[in-house]
What does this fold into?
Amino acid sequence: MANYYTDHPEIEFHLSHPLMKRIVDLKERNYEDKDKFADAPVCYEDAIENYKRILDITGDVAANIIEPNSEDVDLEGPHLENGRMIYASKTYENLDATRKAGLWGVSMPRRYGGLNLPNTTFSMLSEIISAADAGFQNVWSLQSCIDTLYEFGSEEQRQKYIPRISAGETMSMDLTEPDAGSDLQRVMLKATFDEENNCWRLNGVKRFITNGDSDIHLVLARSEEGTKDGRGLSMFIYDKRDGGVDVRHIEHKLGIHGSPTCELTYKNAKAELCGSTRLGLIKYVMALMNGARLGIAAQSVGVEQEAYNEALAYAKERAQFGKKIINFPAVYDMLSRMKAKLDAGRSILYQTARYVDIYKALEDIARDRTLTPEERKEMKLYSRLADAFTPLAKGMNSEYANQNAYDAISVHGGSGFIMEYKCQRLFRDARIFSIYEGTTQLQVVAAIRYVTNGTYLGIIKEMLEKEVAPEFQTLKDRVAKMVEKYEDAINYVKAAGNNDLHDFLARRLYEMTAEIIMSLLILDDATRAPELFAKSANVYVRYAEGTVAGHYAYIKEFKAEDLADFLVATPEEAPAE
It folds into this structure.
């Protein structure tokens, strides 16, 4: 029987990373739950085995329930009835299966009915479910919104809402509006305090809300009258049981049909303030978005894997000119690049998740006791690493998912353009990954300061000091030459002292950064498990070498005065807003 976890040993490999011991010890707080909860681990090895059991259960549910339902969900999609969103019928089967399997409240402490799993394991579960159906992964993975409530809400709110999520109720984050997409400072949904009933009331419209008719919403709203920027925004909790919010419209989308995207109308809806006023965008949404971006990276890796699976299976079966097409160089070149991108993308995903795990666990411990100086230093280090790696993991994997889905159709030839083949759905699903939760362009904006201030270069040089297996030394030497070009390109852009030039070339510097880091990560993986990653290491380093060289040549030949040649319209010709 198929299993989306055990069928891919590359996933389990990432549970063996040296940082996992520190992560588990911090997450389990020296295993203090073992005397309170029957399912709590007693040691590190027990915790890892528990993660594997949960992953195995998820792999079974994904392969044998969610994936077989995916085509019907894609065809039916959600629909609107009397102001309420109704999921596709098979989505209810998926929800029921994941609830019965106990796959809710994944990251929450056991005292609230949760599983107390680290982000690394949660990301693995997300990847597995996404491979089965990326649209359902959205519905399921939005339970991670509860992390923000746990971090910033009151204890009363934790006890009220977290057990409901652990039991399988759904969540959404209601951020964007018709006039406020990526520019969330323009959010105008109005929040006013109702003195008589001692609660907040929300009025206005939210648009493009994923899973928008969920049970519990986190809502960004303007609480400070007269303000027009992010300092007037606060975060609120809306409970569907209280009423006051209707679904006005469900978007008809290119892909991820199982994930309803809703336009919502708030009419005097009762809500609770989460945390403090004025920190909604500045602090709480940033926490929400970083978690969501890691979730999209995991979602992307799942689709990368499934696209590769579909292409490989088809290439093994399809014969042309008297032989299987997998034996044609043009085809196995595509397949090898798909697998290399998948393995390298998965590596940066889990490296990022591990960084997040360490600093988040230390933040949680700090709520109960004062951290030692060493722990504060450790938290600061991993917080910075997580902040630097998240835009790389999200941006690159979302692009790789699109590329792998595109190549899967190419391997299928004309059949790939026919709706009966899954690869067309993967292609449609993948397109949104590089758009929502911050476009790739916004990931570049988030990352570029770490390029120019030398953070990434310092990380890369430290990674270069790590030994690799002798058979990969030549590849490592080639990466070192890439680093020389990368450093020279950074210095060239900085020396130009031109902000427009800096912004124009940022995407190329970003991609150079990511591909060098992923090259070093996949070499480390190959050193530890050559049977899994040797081929991908060879392919990916060569692939990165080509793109880094291309970006380097482009940057070094580019001058500030060349920018005028790229303007579509001069400022005088550009239409007024």
Observations:
- Residues 493 and 499 are 9 Å apart (CA to CA).
